[in-house]
Design brief:
EC 3.5.-.-, KFase/CYL, Glucose Oxidase, domain 1, alpha/beta, 7-stranded mixed beta barrel, about 220 residues, globular, KFase_sf, about 15% helix
Length: about 220
Amino acid sequence: MAIYDLSRSICDGDPGVRVSPARTLEKDGWNASTLELYSHSGTHMDAPWHFGCGEATIDETPLSTCMGPAHIVRLPDTQDAEWLTVGHLGALAENFTAGHSLILHTGWSRFFDQPDIYRRKLPRISEELARWCVEKRVRMLGVEPPSVADVNSIEEVTTIHQILLGGGVTIIEGLVNLESIPTDHCHFAAFPLKIHHGDGSPCRALASDQPFPSA
């Protein structure tokens, strides 16, 4: 089984991240850290409660929805602030298997250290594509930007999240390393921290060329 790590490392100084020493080997006999994490930092999963799409919180996310077959759509020519539509899916728009996950590989993770591009010019899920995802019962929608919508527009970011989360689509944002997956089909998994009443959580996302044991 080939395993592909699709998660960004959590690093001190990244947006929403602070890591400081709590204990040191020299002083205390062991190393330990204090982590301060924004719930939507790095590679992360959103819960329906994030945008008021019901009461379901991140700790209530069924593990069965966190893994399964996925289709990868390669979009290397994605432009700044481009709307991603059903048309971007090509033949997959008609051939998608209900209940599978959808991963959009735009290459946007390469702009992580350029926040004016990464956060302000990100490609966005159109309302048309969001409704298609709900109609096709997409299990997880995975993207590389920090959001599926323009984080600088409260109206847009609310609308797109409410369509997806309210329609039962689990959102994974901030993916990396998608170019390492050699095919356009994989088995995708993303597991959040079990945060009580959490609106979202950093998660460990991975892909495999073979099914996961309980998928």
